[in-house]
Design a protein that fits this description.
six-stranded mixed beta sheet, alpha+beta
Length: 172
Amino acid sequence: MLALSLAFGLRAYTRASAAVRWEPEHQAVVVSVWPKGQEWMARVYRAALSQAPVRDRLREGQGPHPMVVTILPPRYGMKGMYYTLPTDAHADGRDGLMGVDPERSAEPVEVVFSRAEKPHRTNLSMAEALDADVRLTPLVVVDVDHRRGEATRVRIALPRNAWGPGVIMPVL
C-alpha cells in the first residue's frame, strides 16, 4: 500500500512540475519531456502544426478526442513509449534515456501528435487528457528545428507504441 501511495505521490509531483502548455483552440495539450518555457513550446508546436500533411493526418485521426502533443529532445532514448514507425529501429544517435538539452544541440526535436482516449469512453475532455488511464494513439511525428522554428521532416506513426496498440503508457 505504501508503494502505491508513493507512486501516485511521485506522479502528482511530476505532473505539477512538468512543462505543459494548453492549446484549447486545437483541443491539444503540449508536453515537453525536457523542461522548456511556454514560448519555446508554442514555437515548436506551431512549427510542427504548420505542415499540411500534419494537419491532414490530424483531421483523419483525431475525431472527438483531444490531442496530446509530446516534444522529445534530441537523442531521446525512450521513443518507443510514444511511437513506432513502420520501419522503425529508432536508429538516431542516443546519449541516454532523457536525451540532450535542445539548447545545447543543433539537432531537431521530435513532436509526437497522439490521440488521447480512455477505454469504454467515446468522448474525453482536454482536462482528462493527462490522466493515468489515458491511452495515447500516435498519429504523426514531426522533426522541428527549434532554433529556426521550422519543421524539417514529417513521418506517419503506426497506431501503437513499442509495446503494442492496447498498452497504456502514462503521459506524465
